[in-house]
């Protein structure tokens, strides 16, 4: 991961940050060697993002929602991993499977 950017409520592309029942913190990052699908510094398409949810159930619900979107809209497919502490790792489909696995393994080990 490189070029980490902290998302603010005003810049959140999803308009979820800090709202009731939504994520409480969010960062985006680039994945070296990956062509970004967009130049927006707040977009997970830069490489990926990590969202802080109240708990694992909420993070998993978000991951499941994104997975359902990807089943209908192939451009929305992502690599997602929810942890017990409520962190949700989202990696852009532009990342190679090997790069995504490396990031997922590091995320799980934290």
Protein architecture, described:
The structure is a single chain. The chain contains two helices and five strands; from the N terminus they run βββαββα. It is globular. With 110 residues, the chain is α+β, with helices and mostly antiparallel strands. The protein has helices spanning 56-72, 97-109; strands at residues 2-6, 25-30, 47-52, 78-82, 87-92. The chain is 27% helix and 25% strand. The protein has a five-stranded antiparallel β-sheet with strand order 1-2-3-5-4, with helices on both faces.
Pairing-aware structural class of the strands and helices?
alpha+beta
What amount of the residues lies in strands?
25-35%
The residue-averaged pLDDT reads 90
- Our Rg estimate from Cα atoms comes to 13 Å
Secondary-structure element pattern, one letter each: EEEHEEH
Could you give the distance between the termini? 14 Å
Number of helices: 2
- Strand segment count: 5
Low-confidence stretches: none
Helix content: 25-40%
Largest pleated sheet: 5 strands, antiparallel
Strand order of the largest sheet: 1-2-3-5-4
Q: Quick one: overall form?
A: globular
How are the elements arranged and paired?
Layout: E1 2-6, E2 25-30, E3 47-52, H1 56-72, E4 78-82, E5 87-92, H2 97-109
Antiparallel strand pairs: 1-2, 2-3, 3-5, 4-5
Summarize the structure.
The chain is of the alpha+beta class.
């Amino acid at each position: 991961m490189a070029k980490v950017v902290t998302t603010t409520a005003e810049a959140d592309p999803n308009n979820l940050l800090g709202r009731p029942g939504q994520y409480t913190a969010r960062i985006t990052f680039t994945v070296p060697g990956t062509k970004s699908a967009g130049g927006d510094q707040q977009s997970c398409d830069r490489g990926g993002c990590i969202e802080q949810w109240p708990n694992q159930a909420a993070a998993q619900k978000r991951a499941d929602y994104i997975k359902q979107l990807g089943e209908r809209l192939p451009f929305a497919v992502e690599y997602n991993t929810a942890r017990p502490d409520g962190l949700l790792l989202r990696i852009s489909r532009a990342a190679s499977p090997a790069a995504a696995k490396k990031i997922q393994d590091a995320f799980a080990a934290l």
